[in-house]
């Protein structure tokens, strides 16, 4: 901000000094001219440097006329106080002058030309409009009618009264005027009517149009996004300026030249090492930028806009005094009963209802009256794989990964961590990779949803998948092996044995890989793949395991960057990847269908689930 106001202060000083130089007589003091020349040269030098920095090219300046008066007038036009350098408010004036006014002038020009010809002919029927200065005078009167009203032609001039002679007949040319002098203006009903119509059209109709154009520009400028862009543009522009404004920027250039020479001859190697270290530091900072999807606006299935949060202010340990995001909490009645969702909470309710405070046992487990355990511990672990304790802001839990721009619990069922299980099931149909999905989304308007869902109670992680894939079964899935066994049963074991025998026989016959028809090839090892692409999850995927006709792996268990996340509620997921290497898989499993993994699937899945797919495909 110091640089911003310093530049403005010096710019105002330049405008005042330049105005004084223009207003004094044509032979001014040579000292003042030299000062103005140096100042303008320094401003020109600064513009060249900024152009080189931003556009990577140098502007070529063509010499202009040497005439002192012409140069002064050109400079006056250049330094009109309509520049956007004084802030976004002056941009409105600039937009009106260079955009709206020129549009209006383009629309009104045909009316002014036509009106000027009609008015001139009606007042001077015997005068050639192209003779002498008649055309210039006519254009002058019509154009400046925008700013004043010319009505002298509508009445008789005293000098023309003695020349009135309606009986005068000239035998050498045709004459319509009633005066012996054709330069005397004719007045009457028709000239008066033409003047009135033209003035109404120019002053009322076209004037209202100009006001409407200005109002439209004003309405567009009042938009929040426009102001943000203008602020960003101003900050960016002043960021590349030198610390000192013209004409003091010569000192900055001298300092940079000396510094450059010292670095070249003395500290070249040291600077190279510093640059490498700073690059590494930037890389580390980039890797710790989280909350990408969790900061997107508007909030899913609503018109709620998040408070914009830059990467710098995502961590809670970075102070942000003015941070006051909107509060959004979906009512408890809008969730399915089996989710046992939380209602809205506040400190007053906690004080009046002690039992409610026990239910919200953050960083712990609560057992309800039905002996169902609600686990509010996080799956996020530290470097030693120990669960962390997330912080509390009074009674509200704080998102361990930082600010999201929205308070409340949003559309998530519970305050604090919301545990989910997500299973990505894939196979090859010919050469096309397909995934297993079901119609509709949970708490979203997505067309498809992956296998899995919200875990309402502790110990029901894998049973959540059973209720979707095998609801008729009465055996609860308590371990991941129960889930894997179900997916293994979807493969025809006999056909898998036949496929393996065929492959072994093909190998013995030394048939090349290119001659074998493409089937469900084993999934590539995505240990490194998932770790590399899914950077918000700082944990390594589990071991890649294999059974008959399938491969499976637990990719992650922890924080899930979701658009549904808020400052006080967030998703955590246990993400599995199951890939069928055999063609002998059931075409349909209950309400689930196989869909090709194509680009258009991005719009049919929730952004969070599509990000999970991208992390390991």
Automatic annotation (TrEMBL):
Pfam families assigned: NUDT9_N
UniProt entry keywords in alphabetical sequence: Membrane, Receptor, Transmembrane, Transmembrane helix
Organism phylogeny: Eukaryota, Metazoa, Ecdysozoa, Arthropoda, Chelicerata
Membrane-crossing segments per the record: 5-24, 69-89, 101-121, 192-214
Cited InterPro entries: NUDIX_hydrolase-like_dom_sf (IPR015797), NUDT9 (IPR039989)
Gene Ontology MF: a single term: ADP-ribose diphosphatase activity
Protein name as it appears in the record: Transient receptor potential cation channel subfamily M member 5-like protein
